[in-house]
UniProtKB/TrEMBL annotation:
Mg(2+) binds at E42, L405, H457. Ni(2+) binds at C61, C64, C451. GO terms for molecular function: ferredoxin hydrogenase activity; nickel cation binding. Belongs to the [NiFe]/[NiFeSe] hydrogenase large subunit family. Keywords: Iron, Magnesium, Metal-binding, Nickel, Oxidoreductase. This is Ni/Fe hydrogenase subunit alpha. Its cofactor is Fe cation; Ni(2+). Fe cation binds at C64, C454.
Length: 482
């Protein structure tokens, strides 16, 4: 028995590896996607005041921080039974769009595009952002400018360029001034042209790599996302699940997610495996994120993104291939810039009614200790990588007693694992495995844009962290379970 290990998987957020097991005949017997890092934010939240959750959870990740900030604020709204005013909701949506512009441009151009522009068989020393800059410096500059627009939205509306702070229980802590709006609007408008320039480079790549689209990570699954009467939606709405043919399976209030989604632990990963409860595991496997949203949406309510959506649906229909996540991501990037322009042009965005106040005081900490009162709130949004759930339960003083986070990468976990295994079985024959072939397995993972810092959890409060100590010859001398 021989094992091939690809470690670490490069150009993703977080740490993971792929292992491929070969039998004596040189055929692949099994393969897995392993996530071996660990984060404990569900435990970190316990004992914190609920109003602090929107400031704590962005620290989960430096890329996904805005999504965690906003969904955490939505969950705290639900704990207190507060409905943010219209302006506050629009400010949150604008901040989330800034996250999409930043995240989607970062991922496609700097993490995904090197495989496509430089080629999957290119020298790994060049197959990266530095190589991309050398190959196409104008594209790299355009990508940096696009990403900067997202960061500026986050900085102005969210209060900080990283780890925003302005979404609070009941709304926002600061309005957007006319001067700030006037400063942002021309920059965001410029983003439309930047995205169009990027698409001129990107769209031919999907023709060039048509074979890779068909062969890498083959899988057919259900899909899930929020929806808005069939239109693409990032912030509100019911959650819809469809089958592999696009037929509706269920539509439900996302606050009732526990009636529909369950999580399972597998021995090869610290990341959990969510599945559709009514179908069981693994039959209830489903995916989220850009491809899921494009598959579920009947329309996109902005002009240029709608045209891109139509082209995509005409060519791919009900798309299943993981590499098409890249294409869907570019459609959403265009939508995000266009929608951000619409919000900034809406005078409601500079309104001053930005928070609904709490009408009843919380219990004191001492009173809460003698009370069985509990409050619970669930917040759900579409983060760039897919549907994101934050679920908090507090005592009567608003101190968090339990937290559950289900992130997009976890919901795509089983599909990444299956995609790696099936591709390895189809493409690896014999002992010799080229660097390019190993990279093709990594490309499957990169297509999902996993954020592993967000997705890993403590299990039952016990850390499964293992420290291996090797001598200078690489021989294991000690293993310590922490």
């Amino acid at each position: 028995m021989k094992q091939i290990e690809i470690s670490p998987i490069s150009r993703i957020e977080g740490h993971a590896k792929i292992t491929v097991q070969m039998d004596d005949a040189g055929n692949v017997s099994d393969a897995h996607f392993h996530v071996m890092e660990i984060r404990g934010f569900e435990k970190f939240l316990e004992g914190a005041a609920i109003e602090e959750a929107p400031r704590i959870t962005p620290r989960i990740c430096g890329v996904c921080q805005t999504a965690h900030h906003i969904v955490s604020a939505k969950a705290t709204d639900a704990v207190f039974g507060l409905q943010p005013p219209e302006t506050a909701q629009k400010l949150r949506e604008l901040t989330l769009l800034g996250q999409y512009i930043h995240s989607h441009s970062l991922h496609f151009y700097f993490l995904g595009a090197p495989d496509l522009i430089l080629g999957p068989d290119s020298d790994p020393a060049e197959r990266n952002v530095v190589g991309l800059i050398k190959k196409n410096p104008d594209l790299a500059k355009m990508a940096i400018k696009t990403r900067k627009i997202g960061q500026e939205i986050t900085s102005v509306v969210g209060g900080k360029p990283i780890h925003p702070v302005t979404s609070i229980p009941g709304g926002q802590s600061k309005p957007l001034t006319s001067e700030e709006r006037d400063g942002l609007l021309p920059k965001v408008k410029e983003g439309i042209g930047l995205v169009e320039s990027g698409l001129e480079v990107a769209k031919p790549l999907f023709e060039q790599y048509a074979d890779a689209i068909e062969t890498l990570g083959p899988i057919e699954t259900h899909f899930g996302s929020l929806t808005n009467g069939g239109a693409l939606e990032f912030y509100n709405g019911p959650m819809k699940m469809i089958d592999k043919d696009g037929n509706s399976v269920s539509e439900f209030d996302p606050s009732n997610y526990l009636d529909h989604i369950e999580e399972k632990v597998q021995p090869w990963s610290y990341m959990k495996f969510p599945f559709m409860k009514q179908l069981g595991f693994p039959e209830g496997n489903y995916r989220v994120g850009p491809l899921a949203r494009i598959n579920i949406a009947d329309s996109i309510p902005t002009e240029r993104a709608s045209a891109l959506y139509g082209e995509f649906k005409d060519k791919y229909g009900m798309a299943q291939n993981p590499l098409l996540y890249h294409y869907a991501r570019l459609i959403e990037l265009m939508y995000s810039v266009e929608k951000a322009v619409e919000l900034l042009e809406d005078d409601a965005i500079i309104g001053t009614n930005i928070r609904t106040a709490l009408s009843e005081p919380l219990m004191s900490t001492d009173d809460a200790k003698n009370s069985d009162k509990r409050m619970r709130g669930v917040g759900v949004i579409e983060a760039p990588r897919g549907t994101l759930f934050h679920d908090y339960e507090t005592d009567g003083a608003g101190i968090i007693q339990r937290a559950n986070l289900i992130v997009a990468t976890g919901q795509n976990n089983l599909s990444m694992d299956i995609g790696v295994r099936e591709t390895a079985k189809a493409m690896i024959k014999g002992d010799e495995v080229s660097e390019g072939l190993k990279n093709r397995l990594e490309m499957i993972i990169r297509a999902y844009d996993p954020c592993l810092s967000c997705a890993t959890h403590m299990i039952n409060g016990d850390s499964p962290l293992v420290v291996d100590i090797h001598d200078s010859e690489g021989i294991l001398v000690k293993r310590q379970i922490i």
